[in-house]
Amino acid sequence: MGGTLTNFLTIQKNLKKFSKLIYLKNRGFLENIDGREKIYLKKKINKLNRKFGGLLNLKKLPSAVIVADCKIDYNAILEAHKLNIPVIGIADSDANIELVTVPILVNVKSRKTIVFLLTLILNLVLKNILK
């Protein structure tokens, strides 16, 4: 989502709201609310989940950003570059990789290749974290 890195303080506020609503839902507090407010809160939770579900555990800006397609994710690359966050980018030969710290040139149309590379990168990161 655009602005996730550059507007991180705003994103964190929304993540706190989302986390609080999930806590209330898991504790059964939403079941005690009647009518419209209950429907409103459930819709709000679903909307926040679609927008921020994958970011719920993000407490600070990332140390690096990995993009699976440099053409599609160019806005994320620009945001990371503005904040001096290194970018590992998987790209086709026709992509602009000027701002990518570690470009990996492959056929991004091949789903198997992307899955293989992302799995490899994830394993390397986890290996370094768990040392």
UniProtKB/TrEMBL annotation:
GO MF, one annotated term: structural constituent of ribosome
Pfam families: Ribosomal_S2
Gene Ontology terms: biological process: translation
Keyword Hydrolase attributed: no
Keywords: Ribonucleoprotein, Ribosomal protein
An annotated GO cellular component: small ribosomal subunit
Family the UniProt entry places it in: Belongs to the universal ribosomal protein uS2 family.
Protein's name in the database: Small ribosomal subunit protein uS2
